[in-house]
């Protein structure tokens, strides 16, 4: 006999499928109404057998109890709310709501009162007895129904405002703490296509964080926990394209909307496992920066039809300046040290931050100045923040010494005042990890080193193709002096870097990628009519 864990897994599977599949949801609704109708008929039939045909009061009672119980069967999600969307009434605009009414007790009460009404009618109980659970279900389920009407009205108000805004695309976000970087990375390229858009966010706990840490110009719509319910109303006639930046499983809530074209953008090209998830095959279109990304899927065993890919380069690298001289001609080179974060699991932990202090010491010893820009999430992680501070201490100490020429950049200047592209333009070389930072850096043509936290240099280059143009530092830094000297001097990897740049970034130069991206989507957005 199945144990409790089996039934719990089945329950969770049902809930998950109900959240991400319109077809499953419709089927579940048909089943619920079918069962409710059958119970209603059974109650009337039993009454007829016990005490003859039921009175009009009994018939009305079972009808009202059945309908209201089904309406209030699930705890209703709150209404969505909008920010920066003209035409939205005040009750659906403003700060991210912190609290929502808890209708759980009302839902549970109606689940009890509704069936009791049917039982009372089936047992041919007097009208006074039937009235007790009937009144209860009217009050309990009625409260839920009134709330659902209010939610529906607010959702429609936002939909009317969106229809007036006429967005052609939505950034469909369901990610976590990295949202500000992801959203800022892609909003401008999408708007450069010449049409308005909107940002949908799924996880309400990040609503305030995303709004406070981005300068979005597009309207921001915070969905409820029942995203499918909201999207069925909020997808206005002009809205035909959804773009995805994060690998969240909750993207499937958006992807349930089959009338929309779903496009995977990601948040940067890299050899990390997150760049080749099997579920990427479920998107209608994948925008990649170069053929290296397509090859990466194939070698990882993720089979996606070639016609789903479009190579448009990386619009974000248009601000990265190409090197104008050999690094050997730079008297005191500046090296950008930009370690990635550790990820959520050890298998995707490529961060060199734990040996960051030793890396910058080796760079100082080689006669370089350092710009230190760790991944933004590193400072939000208590354990990683320790290594950030340790690395900053080494650089601050060397800068403060009067007997050394070191002048390094740490803290707010490289991490907040300067953009990542500005940091790259100020640097002559890069030290980083398996990260999209490396792929973008290829645009500069400057030398770079990558840190292998687990493998030998040869194994590292075999596993991560972008490292084939890199100087590789192993975690023990045993050969750091020799590797850094080559990077800052003879630069023996230059030809390999040039070859990689074409494969990784598509061969676009200057503003060509940004222009290609804008032109490609302008043509598709322009074909959308209201």
Describe this entry's structure for a reader:
With 530 residues, the protein is an alpha/beta fold. It folds into 3 domains: 4-83 and 101-159, no CATH class; 166-313 and 515-526, Glycogen Phosphorylase B (Rossmann fold, 3-Layer(aba) Sandwich); 320-505, Glycogen Phosphorylase B (Rossmann fold), CATH 3.40.50.2000. It has 19 helices and 13 strands. It has helices at 4-20, 22-51, 56-71, 104-122, 127-165, 179-191, 207-212, 227-234, 251-255, 291-299, 356-365, 382-400, 412-417, 420-426, 436-441, 457-463, 480-488, 494-505, 512-526, and strands at 81-83, 169-173, 197-201, 220-222, 241-244, 261-264, 285-288, 309-311, 334-338, 369-372, 429-432, 448-452, 471-474. The strands form 2 sheets. An 8-stranded mixed sheet has the order 1-4-3-2-5-6-7-8, sandwiched between helices. The chain has a 5-stranded parallel sheet with strand order 10-9-11-12-13, with helices on both faces. Helix 15 (436-441) links the parallel strand 11 and strand 12. The two termini are 56 Å apart.
Beta-strand fraction estimate? 5-15%
What structural class do you assign from the helix and strand content?
alpha/beta
Residue windows where pLDDT falls under 50 for at least 5 positions: none
From the spread of the alpha carbons, the general shape counts as elongated
Largest β-sheet summary: 8 strands, mixed
Question: How many angstroms does the end-to-end distance come to?
Answer: 56 Å
Q: Helical segment tally?
A: 19
- Number of β-strand runs: 13
Sheet with the most strands: spatial strand order: 1-4-3-2-5-6-7-8
């Amino acid at each position: 006999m199945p144990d409790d864990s089996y039934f719990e897994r089945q329950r969770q599977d049902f809930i998950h499928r109900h959240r991400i599949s319109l077809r499953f949801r419709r089927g579940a609704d048909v089943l619920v109404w079918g069962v409710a109708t059958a119970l209603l008929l059974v109650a009337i039939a039993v009454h007829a057998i016990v005490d003859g045909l039921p009175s009009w009061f009994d018939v009305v009672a079972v009808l009202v109890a059945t309908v209201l119980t089904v309406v209030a069967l699930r705890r209703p999600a709150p209404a969505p709310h909008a920010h920066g969307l003209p035409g939205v009434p005040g009750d659906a605009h403003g700060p991210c709501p912190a609290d929502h009414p808890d209708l759980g007790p009302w839902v549970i009460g109606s689940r009890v009162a509704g069936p009791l009404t049917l039982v009372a009618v089936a047992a041919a109980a007097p009208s006074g007895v039937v009235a007790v659970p009937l009144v209860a279900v009217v009050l309990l389920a009625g409260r839920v129904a009134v709330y659902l009407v209010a939610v529906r009205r607010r959702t429609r108000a936002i939909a009317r405002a969106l229809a007036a805004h006429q967005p052609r695309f939505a950034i469909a976000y369901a990610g976590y703490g990295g949202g500000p970087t992801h959203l800022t990375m892609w909003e401008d390229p999408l708007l450069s296509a010449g049409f308005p858009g909107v940002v949908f966010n799924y996880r309400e706990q990040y609503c305030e964080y995303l709004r406070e840490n981005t300068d979005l110009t597009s309207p921001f719509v915070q969905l409820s926990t029942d995203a499918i319910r909201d999207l069925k109303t909020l997808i206005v006639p002009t809205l035909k394209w959804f773009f995805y930046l994060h690998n969240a499983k909750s993207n499937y809530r958006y992807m349930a909307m089959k009338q929309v074209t779903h496009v995977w953008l990601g948040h940067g090209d890299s050899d990390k496992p997150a760049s080749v998830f099997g579920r990427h095959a479920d998107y209608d279109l994948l925008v990649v920066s170069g053929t290296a990304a397509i090859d990466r899927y194939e070698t990882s065993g993720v089979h996606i039809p070639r016609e789903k890919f479009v190579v448009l380069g990386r619009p974000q690298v248009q601000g990265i300046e190409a090197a104008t001289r050999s690094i050997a001609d730079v008297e005191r080179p500046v090296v950008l040290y930009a370690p990635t974060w550790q990820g959520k699991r050890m298998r995707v932990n490529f961060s060199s931050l734990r040996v960051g202090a030793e890396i910058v010491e080796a760079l100082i010893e080689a006669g370089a100045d350092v710009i230190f820009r760790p991944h933004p999430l590193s400072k939000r992680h208590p354990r990683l923040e320790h290594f950030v501070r340790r690395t900053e201490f080494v650089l601050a100490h060397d800068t403060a010494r009067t007997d050394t020429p070191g002048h390094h950049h740490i803290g707010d200047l490289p991490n907040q005042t300067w953009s990542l592209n500005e940091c790259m333009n100020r640097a002559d070389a890069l030290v980083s990890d398996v990260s999209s930072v490396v792929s973008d850096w290829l645009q500069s043509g400057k030398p770079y080193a990558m840190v292998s936290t687990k493998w030998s240099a040869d194994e590292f280059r075999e596993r991560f193709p972008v490292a084939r143009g890199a100087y590789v530092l192993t975690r023990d830094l045993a050969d750091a002096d020799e590797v850094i000297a080559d990077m800052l001097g003879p630069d023996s990897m230059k030809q390999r870097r040039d070859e990689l740049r074409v494969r990784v970034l598509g061969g676009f130069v200057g503003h060509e990628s940004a222009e290609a991206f804008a032109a490609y989507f302008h043509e598709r957005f322009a074909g959308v009519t209201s």
